[in-house]
Please model this.
Amino acid sequence: MSSLSLRRLEKRFGAHAAVHDLSLDVRDGEFMCLLGPSGCGKTTTLRMIGGFEAPDAGDIEIDGRSVTALPPERRPTAMVFQRYNLWPHMSVAGNVAFGLRVRRLPRAEIDAKVREVLALVGLPDAPGKYPHQLSGGQQQRIAVARALVLEPKILLLDEPFSNLDARLRVRMREEVKQLQRAIGITTVFVTHDQEEALTIADRIAVMRDGVLEQVDTPERLYAHPRTLFVADFIGTMNLIPGRVDRQAGGLAAGPWRLPLSAVAWPDGAEATLAVRPEDLVIDPAGTPGDVRRVINLGHYLQVLVDVPGAGTLRLFAGKDAAPAEGAALGIRIARALIFKDTESVEVGTMRPAADRPASAYSPAADRS
Amino acid sequence: MSAVTVRAAARGAPARRAWKEGALGLALVLPPLMVLVFLIVLPAITAILDTLTPDPTVRGFTPALYTQLLASRIVRSDIVFTVVVTLVSVAVTFALSYPLALYLRFARGRLPAVLAVLFTIPLFVPVVIASFAMITFLVNHGVISTIFYRLGVQRFPPLVYNATGIVLTEVWASLPFAVLILGAGLQAIDGALIDGARDVGAGPLRTFGSIILPLNVTPTMIALTLLFINVFGSFTIPYLVGGNAPQMLGVTMTNYLTQYLRRSEAVTLAVMAFVISAVVGAVYVVSVSRRERGAV
Amino acid sequence: MSPTWYWSVGALRRAVGVGAFLALAAFILGPLLTLLLWACAGSWLFPSLLPEFSFKWWAYVLANADVTKAIRMSFASAPLATALSALICVPAAYAFARLRFPGRRALLLSFLSANAFPKIGLYVSIATLFYRLNLMDTFAGVVLIQMVNTLLFMIWIPTGTFRGINTNLEEAARDAGAGPLRTFFQITLPIALPGLIVAVLFAFLAAFDEAQGTLIVGTPNHITMPVMMYTLVLSYPQPVGAVFSVLLSLPSIAFLLLAQRYLRAGYLAAGYSL
Model:
């Protein structure tokens, strides 16, 4: 059982707070992603877990025991860096065996473990080779092997695949995910690529400017983002600025008027309407717009539509829908989120104010 | 350990770690620093103090030694001679090395490769040998003069045992330093910057003046100041290749020390040399520090 | 006719290039080749283009007791000066590269001071200090003088080398369980070795070829080979100096050949961009 607990971590560089009041629990065997744009503090957090940075305040616990005072060589963590993992003057076997030699294991046992772990990462013929003889992807696999051979309690990965080309990156992360599932090791994976996080994480911790915005499963982050930042960062989102207008019935955003009965927001307050492309439905009776561009992605179409008052919106359509560029199109919102400061509201099917909403909708006022 | 004490320990830990790191760093740096102080700082300071108190019976500082030396016509002409020879040597070296550095940076093929090896050769030749080689090469009835004689040139100008010989030898010995420093600076200029200039229509001369030269200012300053200090304070080359008068300051002060056995005068001349090159030395240190800013 | 015209004419440009190359080659190699000819010369009388070849002066030089004494002194003092510098400077270089401590930058720059002053002035000042401490004409004095030259190389090049090693490599070792000392000896040092070898190379040559300071401090009983050269050049026939020059160049050449693979452009520039 290896759980990781970050308690109110704080790290400052000069006057700038790289990580602020960060608390996070990673469960045993969980694959947790730290996700966020550059400079959000995710790598700093990872380095604090590994022991390479000392937090200015707060505590780090592994299996209930504090490790904050321990230097990296005594922590039960193993890190795979983004670059420069392997020591160039040692063979692959030497690299992998290094940590085992530090622990003074018997030679035969070391050799066996090295062979085992290299087979695990799919490079059984590598032991005699040197890092410069391997490709980037192979080097990272060896780095993972070296980390795993020490049987750490927590595996830490700092964007290990961002230097590899796109297809290799996809393949490597799949392999790491499968490996993690097979071994069941608690893992923290840092990335700036939201698609990567959505694909492999059990849970994702979204960070911005040193602060944790939301921790949730990929599904819940996608469907129920709690802040505008998370809504925009995860997946694609159409954002339409609006304002609370009680007279018009609730939220006025572009041509849409949406009821806000579930929340008591002050009249005139600014709020943003956020709609997923798949929640924008082509409906001849819906709000009119002009097709600006149709992007054919093979198995589906992305349609960019100019809606007066709302800007250019993106929606998805099936291959057979094929709207023509420049043609007029009707759009209906099937589901949307409305964000005001730190609050959010979910609304179901909507119709513009022009033709009165006769159909009921199912508001799930998911206020956090 | 309770959570409270753990958190307190975590708060104090970074400060303690920083203190330990600082103390270790200073401890490791101390030995060579002590040697530096003993070999450079201490002698320099005692030298300056000694020259200001030449007569142990007279208290307080007096510039008597300096005025006395500067009153000598020979010393004055030596100082002027040193400065002139230094400036000429630096100018000639710079004029030769910059085109060479540019050529090595931008040219492709076998010729640049050979040239790259060629110009580094003087680095590996001790200055004493270089001086001697130059003498045998340039002296009247030496190789060059023999070739010219064979070509029918009867009179051959004296190229050694005078300022010309000193300049030629200093240039010979300084060329690799200058080319390497300038070359390293040129290497650091991204090719894209130069291609961009040519793309908008700048010719080679314009590109050099507007793009390359400004971006290479710091290495240029380093090269110029280093050359100046090296030539200004050189001893071996003027000692072997120079004439009898006037002398470069390096020879003058060594003569005062070892031949005339007038230590105080020798040190006074040394201090004067320090002062004259102090500004240049300061620019040198500032330039190197600026170049290393990204890295240091 | 604009100056750019003839640069655009390929053949002319090539001719100028080759001409410049030959002139430079003659300037650089000419003196050295002349010296080499003198070293094989019995006598060389003007106006012949080549000397009479003979190796008699080699026997003369090698039999000279002062010469052998100077050779021994050089090979005793220069390696010692280099080794001592390496011992105290390499850990300091690591500190400069990796550790944070007050005054780090200022102290690193202070090691440039050996370059920022005219060396002869320094040597004269050191001489007066040595007179007071009875270090004149001693072995220790000679070694110390040589260290003035080695210190700079053994601080700056190793500092740059250590800095060039990505910290991830050291952190990975700590992550795998190695303490700071083991990390330094098993990871940092091996990776830094090429740079350190270059530093030792430059430092040794600087110590070995040091002439002016040793002339002042080592005369008359502790003379090194470069100092011997002064006398040979001034007071002996040309072939004698030439033969001794070849002897004096041997360590430089040997090191050049031995360390060839380390002398890639970057390392060479690092040594001389000081």
